[in-house]
Every structure is written in C-alpha cells, then in structure tokens.
Known about the structure:
- Chain A is of the alpha/beta class.
- Chain A has helices spanning 9-13, 28-35, 39-42, 51-54, 58-68, 84-93, 118-125, 139-142, 169-188, 218-229, 257-270, 275-299, 311-322, 329-339, 351-355, 357-364, 383-393, 403-423, 437-453; strands spanning 4-7, 19-22, 45-50, 71-73, 97-100, 131-137, 155-159, 206-211, 235-238, 242-246, 249-251, 304-308, 375-380, 428-432.
- In chain A, a hairpin with a 2-residue loop joins β10 and β11.
- Chain B contains twelve helices and no strands.
- Chain B has helices spanning 5-27, 31-52, 55-76, 84-102, 106-127, 135-162, 164-187, 191-212, 214-217, 221-249, 262-266, 270-285.
- Chain A binds chain B through residues 3-5, 7, 109, 138, 141, 144, 147, 149, 151-156, 190-195, 197, and chain B through 67-68, 71-72, 74-79, 81, 84, 87-88, 91, 133-134, 137, 141, 248-250, 252, 257-260.
Amino acid sequence: MFGVTVIGLENLRQVGRFIIIANHNSHLDICLLFSMLKIADISRTHAVADMAYFSSSRLLFNFVTFLFNTVWVNRGDTSRESDPLGQLKSLIDDGHNLIIFPEGTRGKPGELEHFRSGIGRLMAQYLEVPVVPVFLMGPERALPKKSVVPLPFWNTVIIGPPQVCRGSHREITQTLEHVLAELARSETARRHQRMPVREKAEEKTVTVAFLGIDGSGKSTISRMTAMELSESCRVCLISDRLELYKQGNLSDYQPLVTEKIREALSRYAKKAQSLKLYKIPKLAELLLRDYLRREVKRWYLADVIVLDGSPLLNMVAWAGLYREKPMDDETYSKAIAVLTGGEAAIGEHDPIYTQFPELTVMKRLKLTGMELPDAVAFIDVSPRLACSRIDARGEQKQVHETEEKLKNLRVGYNMVCDTIKRRYHVPMTVLNGEDTQEHIVSAALDFILSSLALGE
Amino acid sequence: MTYSWSSLTLLALCIALTIAVVSGRVMKRHASFDAYLRYTWIFFLSFTLAEFVSFPIGLWVLALLSFWALREYFSLIDIRIQDRLGILGAYLSIPFMTYFIQIDWYGMFIISIPVYAFLAIPLFITLAGGEARGTVFSVGAIDFGLFLFVYCLGHIGYLLLYSTWMAAMLILAVMLSDAAAGMVRTRLKPPIAQVLGTYCLSLPLTVPLSWLLSPWTGIPVNHALVLGALIPALVIMGRQTIDVIKEDLGIIDEELLPGRGQILDSMKSIFYTAPVVFHYIRYFLK
C-alpha cells in the first residue's frame, strides 16, 4: 500500500555504526527508517522519542518500545540532575546506533524546522561516529499531523552521504541543519507547484519625473539615470519609448497595447504643422502616458518609474504656452488640482474652467485621475542652447521648437515646479542643463536617493 | 482442455515477456526500457490471467496497475492537506469503476468516473473544511489524474471483456508505435519531422499487425486496417501531452524511478489510445 523508493542506500550500508538524523513530519517516519536497516542492525538501533507524548497509554508505550527499541527522553525536563543524553551516550558507547529527529517535533508538512541543540551536544562528544542525514518525502502526505488514517502515497527516502562532525556543539547543529536543508532543497526543487498566491503588492513603486524644454537633454539624462538606478532595482523608463531596465541592461518585456497606440499618436503629433493641430494629439499622448504609467505599475512591478516629462506637469506647463498671457501660480495650482481629481476644493464655476475649457471636457470624460510624480527634477537650459541642440539633431523641427516659444515654455515649467514644491510638497530640484552629462546624472541620482530615502 | 491457437499464442507472449523482464533484472539494460517492459509485462500477465484463469482476476490486476499509477501521480502533485478526503475518494473510485466492468454494466461504467467520481470528490474535499482558497486547483489536479489513470485505463479492462486479443492487439500496436517513436526521437529534431516520421515508421508495423490479428481479435478487415492507422496517431498525441505534463510535474527522464514518474512514463502512450479504440470498436462492431 505504501510504495517506497530509496535513493542512496549505499550510503547507509557502507558504515558499520551510525546515527541517523531525519526530518520529522509524520508518525510514519520511524517505520520507514527502520525498514531500511539491515536485519542484523535492527536490534542494535534505537529510536529516540519523547516520553510525555507516548505515555498516554500503557499499551502504546510498550508497543513503541518493543517495535523500535525506543530510548525515552524527557523533553521538558531541564533539571540539572537528569542527563537526558546520558542514556544515549551509554548506548553509543556500547556500539549501538541511534535514530534521532533533530527538529524535536513534527514540523509543518514540507518544511524543515529549526534544529534543537541536543544533537550538537551529543555529537560533540562522539566526533568519530558518522552521522547519516536522511530526507523523507511522502510521509507528511500519507499520515499528516492530525490524521489517523494513512493514505497510499509514494514515499521517497533520500539518504545522504555520512557526515563526520567537528567543532563545537553549536557548529555541529548548524552544519547538520545545513546538510539536511541542502538535501531537502535538491529534492524538492523540481517539485510541482501550483501558481503561487499573489499577495497584494504594496504600492512601493516610486515615480520620478524629469522636466525640461525640448533640447534640454532630458531624454538622454532620464535614460542614463534609469540605467544607473537599475543596478539595484527594477526600473521602467517611459519616454518616447517604453523601456524596462534590470541591472543596467535593457530587458525584454511583454508589449502593452497602450504603448503601441501611444507611439503611433506621438509620431502623428510630431508631424503637426501648427500649434493648434499639435494640441489634441499631444494631449491624447500625454493622457496615454499617464495611463501607461498606471499599467506599468500594475504589470511590470517596477520599483522605480522614470518619466521623461511628467504628463500632468507637461500638460499644465503647456497650457501656459497656449494662453498667450502668462499664468500665475494660483492658476497652475488649480489646474493641477483639477487634473489630479481633487477639484472638490475648487468651486464649480471657477474662472479656471472658462480659461481652460479643456479641463471641463476632461472632467466630464472622467480623464482627471492623473497623479503627481513622487520626485521632480527640472533640467534648466537657456533657450538658445536648447535650439542649437535641436538643430544639431538634424530632425524635422516640431512646430513649437522656436526660441521664443521655448522661452515661454521654460518660464512655464519653472512656475509649475515652484508650485508643486510649495503647494504640494513634492521634492523638486533644478539641475543645470548646461553641465556635463555625468554631473547632471549624478546630481539627479543624489537628489532621487535622498528625497526618496524617506519613503523607501 | 484444448486451447485455441490464439490463447496459446497469448500465453507464449506472456512467457516471452516474463523471460525478458527477468533477464532484464539480471542484465540491467537501459533503465527506462526495463521499466517499460515491466509494465507491458503486467498488461500481458493480466490478459493471460483473464484468458486462462478467470476474467475478474485479470481485470483486478489492471485495477492494481491503475492504483499504482494514481498513487504515483498523487505523490507528485501539489495538493493540500485538506484534500486528503478527496484523495481517498479518488482511490476508492477504482474498485467502484472496476466492479461495473466486471458485471458488464456499460452504462454505469462509462459515467462512474466522469459523473459520480467527479461529483463526489469535490464534495469530499469541501467536507474536510479548511481554507477554501485553492479548492478549484486541487479539484482540477485530482480529476485530471482520475481521468487519465483510472478512466482511460479502465477502457482497456472493458476491451478485455469484449475479447482478450483486442486488448492484446492494442498493447502490441502501442508497443510498436512506441518503438518507432523512440527511434525517431533521437534521430530527427524538428517536431513536424518527428511526428511524421513516427507515424510513417509505425504505419507499416501496426497496419499489418492488426490485419494479421483480425481473425483472433474478431475485427473485420476494413476496421482492422483503420485501427492500424489510427493507433499510431493516438500514440503520438498521447506522448506529446504526457511529455509536457511530466515536465510540469518535475519528472526528468534521467531519474525515473517508481514513485518519481516511472509508471507514468512507461504507460504514457496508452492513455490516449485505449478510450478511442474502445469506443471505435464499440460503435462499429457492437
């Protein structure tokens, strides 16, 4: 009824006397172990058991003593006079073998409990007796802890090579525990496992946004920062393309539909001929970026998301570009509030809605669920330098990439960053875009790690 | 008592296999081949017992084989402690089904596992109490094992009831297809080539076999030819499925031992073949 497969029996047969240590998960363990012994050895092998557990019935007590030549140990007895190991030591002196379960009790099925110190103390005095580690797999299913009826299951007994102990008793216990754990691990590594239960992952994802006008180099800076950060954690970069970084390298990821749509939109937007035509596709692209950020949080479980331009803040700053007159801090703050869904603080007939009818539309379409990034780095460059960099790129210029418009944009960004720092307490830093790339990146990293060390 | 030629051939086959198995033990050939031979030998032992001694004895040997396979499967899958009652129910469904084969009650046999066992086992699992999470996965795993190792093997038992040589022919044809598959597996790499190669290599073996055996099995020639062409296809399908399941369960070919997938691996071709062949024969010939 119980099939048994024994692996490594020669390890047991090659030693004349031994002390078997095994993991203990079921009452069947001892039967299995005894069935592996040579007939001649049976009378000389003793199991070590706890007297208190088995003393409940006289019949059981005698039965177990008869079957397994049991040596009774009082587990709870810590008084000085009784030496629980005394009987064991005298048996070993006589040349008998022992079977010991170092966990001390039946553990949870499939898990190895911490070893008690008894085995170490015993072996410290008998360093020459080989210890044979045995791993049993199967009895914890056949007769688990609270069951009375055993069920047919295959039992696998894996006998490891005999160990010779050395060192202090603590070291011995530790070594033996490692040995048995290794044996267990090598056997259960391939075991069939159902889908692991997905715990509700805490929202540990941190978002870092790099702001800057076109030509400030934010794409490059954000990429380099992402690569640097990914040495220690999973980083996802959302810029013109979606990139996932692990250990400084680009890694494969499962494509998202949102990303494909966004790329198409962004290409379309870049080819716009006038500011008006650029507005709607760019707005849509920014919204999609935000949606993408949420999807990345959910599916990629990235630790850090680096944004090349925050959708929310870009939108707000760009609004300033589209209104010819400059905006003030109050307006920006209200716009951010609306876009992040906190418009309850603002009245329904606030002038901001007349200023920006788009906000009304977005509110009605329920597109106002955007989030502020957890940290913002603004890369500041002069518009002239930006323009020269854009020219150097050699691509077709987008409609807003003139020096004057870039100047307005820069002012807008500055004000936005100011607003979020003062009103929304988002950690913000201004990086000097005219510095070398390494300096900027290292400054950015310092800022990120310091400002987020509070949160992480 | 005079025995017919067919019965004597069966006995001779069984004896030949016995010799092969015993000599395998002594000579220690390739381990998985020895195991394969051993389980084929058990099949033929059961057929011979059914022919010469009595049908129920042969049938219950098959039930024992089912039990071993199911036990090995349950030892390999990840089940929870609270599924134990369901496992007990699964083991008990073997004699439940086998009894219906013995008394030739087809109606109950054919639904004993898919209806009654599949209804009872989730009930038993839920009766044990404990956490509900993971019940569906447990039920799925246990049911799948029941289906493959009990139900599909039970069809061989019913085939045995119809005629011993029908079952024997099935096993022989499966052996030939397995031999072809084994030869092809080491030589051809791309999957399409393997499938086609196995099929084309086993066709000239199984079709003549079933044609030649048709006087003994009682299957008319045309159906015998169709069966001969059908069996290799089913063997290929079965091997493909079970190979992937083996990988999921963590069974690797180099370390096959009973309890670690040896039984599963040795009988993998039969699980798909037996039910289809049985139903084919039942539909056309009964």
